Amino acid sequence: MTLTDVAQHAGVSPQTVSRSLRSPELVSDSTRERVRASIASTGYVPNLAARNLASNRSMTVAAIIPSISASVFADAVHGLDHELSSHGYQLFIGSTDYSADREEELVRALLGRRPDGMFIVGTEHTAKANQLLKEARIPVVEAWSLTDSPIHSQVGFSNREAVRSLVQYGHAQGYRHPTFAGSLQPGDARAIERRRGFEASVRAIYPNEAIRVLDSGNHGADMDAGVALLDRVLSEHPETDLIVFSSDIFAAGALLECARRRISVPGDIAVIGFGDFEIAAHTVPRLTTVAAPSHDIGTRAGRVLLESMHSASESTQEIDLGFTIVARESA
Amino acid sequence: MTLTDVAQHAGVSPQTVSRSLRSPELVSDSTRERVRASIASTGYVPNLAARNLASNRSMTVAAIIPSISASVFADAVHGLDHELSSHGYQLFIGSTDYSADREEELVRALLGRRPDGMFIVGTEHTAKANQLLKEARIPVVEAWSLTDSPIHSQVGFSNREAVRSLVQYGHAQGYRHPTFAGSLQPGDARAIERRRGFEASVRAIYPNEAIRVLDSGNHGADMDAGVALLDRVLSEHPETDLIVFSSDIFAAGALLECARRRISVPGDIAVIGFGDFEIAAHTVPRLTTVAAPSHDIGTRAGRVLLESMHSASESTQEIDLGFTIVARESA
DNA sequence: TTGTATGCGTTATCAC
DNA sequence: GTGATAACGCATACAA
Questions:
Q1: Per-residue pLDDT at B314 exceeds 80
Q2: Which pTM was predicted?
Q3: pLDDT tens sequence across B278-297
Q4: Could you say which residues from 186 to 225 on chain A have a Cβ atom under 8 Å away from some Cβ of chain B?
Q5: Which of A17, A192, A299, B220 sits most deeply, having the most CB atoms within 10 A of its CB?
Q6: Which fold has domain B3-54?
Q7: A240 in the Ramachandran plot: left (φ > 0), alpha (ψ -120 to 50) or beta?
Q8: Does residue B51 reach within 7 angstroms of strand D, measured from its CB?
Q9: Do A111 and B47 lie within an 8 Å CB cutoff?
Q10: What is the DSSP string of B64-82?
Q11: What is the CATH number assigned to the segment(s) A58-157+294-321?
């Protein structure tokens, strides 16, 4: 069923059918009604790919996230979708599984769909991906972490500041020997920002303290890696009384292991995570961590995109949404 | 940047560029290399909307789910995406927010993108949505629950068997007077299946027991309805020692109300839900329920779609993936 | 191995 | 208020 079929059925030109759909006010009541009836009886569904090609607008936005099943990103996509769909935009989605190469691949593939805007988690991309994004001449929102050299707009919070707050919180709770532990691979720019935040704040808050940072290396970001990190903290830095993990996952693994070994948390050692994932509220003791405004990031990103897509001006926005320390029992 | 631009740059015809991309083996090494270089230096990104129009294949799949941020559906989409993206398909996503009208709207809109396949959660759609889906002539996988009259293929689990297992579990825990409570409107085949499962299994397991079934009627499927159902169970069937709700939502409402009234769960009365929604792990006491194999549903649905899209035969599949009883503290 | 003609379904532009 | 015509960027079929 095409526009032409409907036109024949209604006894008008294809152009008139197109008009009744796009700008009904330019069409007389009687023909508009005839067209409406023909559309209903033929079961015509407009081909948006053709519309896209002819009008040079796709009414789509592409979203690139590390993982769909990570609830923080799902929340963001939910907010994004809510904002965009109410304005008639549809959402393309791709997940990188935290791989920069996969991200570049996705950027290329999704750009091929000619989206009117792009939402992408993170500010660290391959050189090629960066270039593609810039040359695409569409609004791009980089979300989550904030950077000094965004491609276009950005919506997020400062990982660095968040960790600084965490260290301050730990200091206020009376801990004196914090150690940072996480995966600090080049791929994960957010983890690196967190480490930087840790180093800077320890330097400021604990001027006489050594700066202890442990890298889990190139292993998976799973709870087992958290156990391994705990092990290393205990053996390499036995003076530690507070571990700041770069992710709730690591922290949860460490917490489990502490229970197994009858290490009291936070009595013997305190534990802090990052992300406020679901698991953080279910560990024993429950995990103190920092929450990103996931849903808001999506919503605000959606609004920024809508504005940019409609105004066609090149103006960009940088929005810092802050974060929340979630104080529970583990520290 | 278009195919033609690249062709001019490389000094060949547009056709040759197209061929070097689609079937490189038909092009001589030297020209292929020239084309490759031109693509790289022009930063050409193929327009997939145009390719879609010309080739009548979009290499996209549309997924319609109730909510992106519900982890069960996010897991399914993750599995689906993983399966499809490895074969070059991209994913369109839409969330209905549990509204049938919104679902119909989405079906229409996403069908406009001419996806090569469709993934949709649930088997109950508006008449119009059903018709659109059938007339789209693309493979459709209805996921989650199983129905007797699928549109095309389906991947899910048997609600009937799941409730039967729940009743068996309740019996094993020592409960002797189970009552089923839920929304049993004629439209909702899944709830009816659950009721049937309840009736059949009570008949088999409790031969001397009356079969108690309560219908919340034509109200919303929200926590308040759960409170109302609890009320009716207590007044109409005071002998009840186990309530099997047709949804975690109802069960969670009932649990909250029990806390308010100082009714001990499971001491005074036990409660079982259905679905293993996120809330089930957050109630006090935590809710015993049944979990769908979310991620597997997505993965298998992806495979079914791939087969159907490639074979072009009209063959359909019906896959029962089973379920898992999640035993927590409420029963 | 490469090039030419034609069409995919729609919108934009300009006529009437 | 309505219609004819030419794009949009690519693939298909066929020809060379």
A1: no
A2: 0.87
A3: 678 777 788 999 999 999 99
A4: none
A5: A17
A6: 434 Repressor (Amino-terminal Domain) (1.10.260)
A7: beta
A8: yes
A9: no
A10: EES-TTSHHHHHHHHHHHH
A11: 3.40.50.2300
